[in-house]
Amino acid sequence: MTYCVATMIDSGIVFASDSRTNAGVDYISTFRKMRVFEVAGDRILVTLNSGNLAVTQATVNHLERAIKSNIEPNLLSVRSMYEVAELIGAALREVRRRDSAFLKENHVDSSVNFIVGGQIAGEDQRLFLIYSEGNFIEATPETRYFQVGEIKYGKPIIDRIIRADTSMNDAIKSVLVSFDSTMRSNLSVGMPIDMACYSRHSLQLAQIHRFDDQDNYMQRLHKSWGEGVRAAFAELPNFEYQSDLS
Amino acid sequence: MTYCVATMIDSGIVFASDSRTNAGVDYISTFRKMRVFEVAGDRILVTLNSGNLAVTQATVNHLERAIKSNIEPNLLSVRSMYEVAELIGAALREVRRRDSAFLKENHVDSSVNFIVGGQIAGEDQRLFLIYSEGNFIEATPETRYFQVGEIKYGKPIIDRIIRADTSMNDAIKSVLVSFDSTMRSNLSVGMPIDMACYSRHSLQLAQIHRFDDQDNYMQRLHKSWGEGVRAAFAELPNFEYQSDLS
Predict the structure, then answer these.
(1) Is the pTM for the entire model greater than 0.90?
(2) CATH number of A3-233
(3) Residue-range domain boundaries for chain A
(4) Phi and psi of B37, rounded to 5°?
(5) C-alpha to C-alpha distances, B246 to A45, A196, B13, nearest whole angstrom
(6) Sign of CA dihedral A127, A129, A135, A138
(7) Beta-carbon count within 10 A of B130 CB
(8) A246/B172 touch (CB, cutoff 8 Å), yes or no
(9) Cβ-based contacts of A199 with chain B (< 8 Å)
(10) Which ipTM score applies to this complex?
(11) What per-residue confidence (pLDDT) applies to A36?
(12) Which residues contact A245 (CB under 8 A, 6 or more apart)?
């Protein structure tokens, strides 16, 4: 299982992904689900992905080969994030066209999702969610984040916190709490977590960090959040429970 | 969509269900998803259900007809909760055997889940989850609760709070917070909420309560929880974010 999230605020975008791949009952590996394409001063693109690993890797390989072979258009040549989303969608369609008949024969699910966000010089930061079918949607002021994979456990805290004017620090914390909640409820989402922070208009990646299961900050966050939630629970008003009612 | 939960603690069982049925895009109705079978001093059984409404209603109808017609065995004649779960599973299999071929023709999902819990004189309180296929599992000291329907948003708070020695008051509050979180994230789970509280060994229902969207206690709970979670978030340690890193 996978969990990835990207939240866009006025001051930038926070991307994060777990790195666990469950390729079978007793075979759990870690593979990076985040990729960064950067040309400092011109563009920064970050992709996150969930779903069939062979399909996502083939799609990324397709995109990288176009860059290396200078096949136009490619992720480093297009002038808008919209075209970036189109390129990923087209590569995904190509891979699924090639593979999905074979996968279907063995009832293997070939569906995948990509999140891609960042900024290209000449336009503002943008964030997209690309579906298995290759079509996509863009984040708006009303929908400032996208999640893929095991999304439900970690959704409530993002809903509560993320607004246009949320600080980068608070956006980072909400994303990491979102991971903490998800990993607590679904053991197949696991450390390490990759996090990338982009500052709007910087056109370079501000920070990339890998949190492993020994990470001191994640342990403090986990403890503080658990204590805070228990304190919030202890403060709740009691319901008038009458155990002797007959 | 539906959300139902039942949690068993040493002092009793708390059952709760939403009552929204979404039978189509623009047709949302409320139907009770909770049923109580009570013979004071002998037994108390509470059922909750999710899934295809026609199938659940037919199953319950089947069980009620057996009681009314004195067909043995029935829910009021068997001497163990295990047999209660068997009866529900058998009724469910009968209904699906009759209807599912017709439903499949139109790609209608005929799956349903039942939760049933309570106590019959002569044995302890017990709690079961019955699957669509008519088989079932029983709650254990390690798994003290069952949820059906839209289960993920409301799971974390139950995981945090429910232990064997959790008080009835805290069990009630965790169940209601669980509903609050679910309704916040999934609009198709909605008020009113039906809640039934059973005190172990009482062999009668202690309290049944319907919370509608004007309910004063639910409004206070919602406000207090939101404030508490925001306070817990504000207390989290900051991540060392360096926006000028290059």
Answers:
(1) no
(2) 3.60.20.10
(3) 3-233
(4) -115, 115
(5) 16, 13, 57
(6) negative
(7) 27
(8) no
(9) 243
(10) 0.86
(11) 92
(12) B206, B207
